Amino acid sequence: MAAYDLVVRNARIVTETGQTEGDIAVKDGVFVAVGGEVAGRGAREIDAGGRFALPGGVDSHCHIEQKSSMGVMCADDFYSGTVSAAFGGTTTIIPFAAQHRGMSLREVVKEYHAAAGPKAIIDYGFHLIVSDPTEHVLGQELPALIRDGYTSFKIYMTYDALKLSDYQILDVLALARREGALVMVHAENHDMIKWLAHHLVEQGYGAPKFHAVAHARVAEAEATHRAIALARLVDAPMLIVHMSEIEAIETVRQAQAKGLRIYAETCPQYVMLTADDLDKPGVEGAMWCCSPPPRDAAAQAAVWEALKDGTFQVFSSDHAPYQFNVGGKIPKGDKTTFKEMANGVPGVELRLPVLFSEGVQKGRITMQQFVALSATNHARLYGLYPQKGTIAVGSDADFAIWDADREVTVRWADLHDNVGYTPYEGRQLRGWPVTVVSRGRVIVEDGKLAAERGSGRFLACASPDSAKPRGEAVPELKGMSRFAAKPLF
Ligand code: DUC
Ligand code: ZN
Ligand code: ZN
């Protein structure tokens, strides 16, 4: 009788702190031996042949089976979204349960569970989107939901149907501080964008490329500065999502240097795309429209610098999948102006291959930084560490074996989402996750899926300040050394 359920032999095992050679043994869904030679046999044995074994990715920003504020449904449900994630080496996602105004948050959460439970093939938690912070929501629903494992919520400074006032943001931040939650902020100045968009469209400049003009850099810079000031007033932690812009990044860096608990995220589109990608005939450029928009080569360089120096803790996909048709990106067909387009680009499957190829292979970040940015820091920030985000005895056996030399030309036809296109069509990547394991189950192998619908499990997130590794001191986030010995939260 086999001693283990699964043994992987001869791997280069990488965590955020180092690399070790040898074997991995898994029993009952968790790692029971990591590194060195495992003596006993596994019911299933895999020879990694010296290839890398990396922690399964944790994607803490993706939109799955979510209706946008303009009423457009995502193209990916919890089946296609999680299958696509798995093929890209991601084994945990934290999508959003989105409140639209007038809705009870508790009801929203129930609906997302009903959607995800029967379909997800990998494990998932939920952030909340709070668009209606009424007295009932702030006083009753949110504190109870935080206790139940929904310990992070996104708020918006723009979009008519989602935007909170500064006063409301302070209410949400104060509650997060009191109850031990993390507030994620979409930081763009609403009136700047609205004013520019109005005048552009009025003068006939409605094509997708003007989306990048309306969403001006200074709109991101101003809102980032203001969001941080609000967090500072009430001494609450905050994470600025999907950052794209030089001045805003510098503002975050300065806030961190002052010791403020400000965290930040960026995404593949801000290292792979520029505003020029939106400049296509007709409304085709809509497929590259996301908010904030891609900027230019100098902004891409600033994003890489912030990934390298630890200003950004997390690299997420912001997978926002909308098909290129009237039910998706372009509600008025070829008459759609950028103001009416659904915002967002797909990326859940390519997130890790992009970071590996453009980051590690090109020498911009180390393997350890790759692991921290793609998995470990997500688990830490959202209270899932060390169950998720690392390869260590006792942690869930979520990992991928990577072929670092595999050359891939990106083709949407080879991906597994339901979007119909990828903004990265034709791009060359080097390095690919060839075998993907979730809680000890080999779910992707030789390009084939081997996971049952609904086999993913819900993860209740701990409050980040209680997410301490068993038996150890609270670790600092990788790259956050300027916070000295301060606990994470
Ligand atoms: N914000 C997101 O987080 N995703 C898609 C579009 C947006 O504005
Ligand atoms: Zn956003
Ligand atoms: Zn998003």
In terms of topology, how is this protein built?
Blueprint: E1 4-14, E2 19-27, E3 30-34, E4 42-47, E5 52-55, E6 57-62, H1 78-87, E7 90-98, H2 105-116, E8 123-124, E9 127-129, H3 135-147, E10 152-156, H4 166-179, E11 182-186, H5 190-202, H6 211-214, H7 217-234, E12 238-240, H8 246-257, E13 262-266, H9 269-272, H10 297-309, E14 314-315, H11 351-360, H12 367-381, E15 399-409, E16 428-438, E17 441-445, E18 448-449
Parallel strand pairs: 1-4, 1-5, 6-7, 7-8, 7-9, 9-10, 10-11, 11-12, 12-13, 13-14
Antiparallel strand pairs: 1-2, 2-3, 5-15, 15-16, 16-17, 17-18
The protein binds dihydropyrimidine-2,4(1H,3H)-dione and zinc ion (2 copies).
Q: Could you characterize what this model shows?
A:
With 489 residues, this protein is of the alpha/beta class. The chain has 12 helices and 18 strands. The chain has a domain of 321 residues: Alpha-Beta Barrel (TIM Barrel), CATH 3.20.20. Strands 1, 2, 3, 4, 5, 15, 16, 17 and 18 form a 9-stranded mixed sheet that branches. Strands 6, 7, 8, 9, 10, 11, 12, 13 and 14 form a 9-stranded parallel sheet that branches. The C terminus is likely disordered. Bound molecules: dihydropyrimidine-2,4(1H,3H)-dione and zinc ion (ZN) (2 copies). One zinc ion (ZN) binds next to loops.
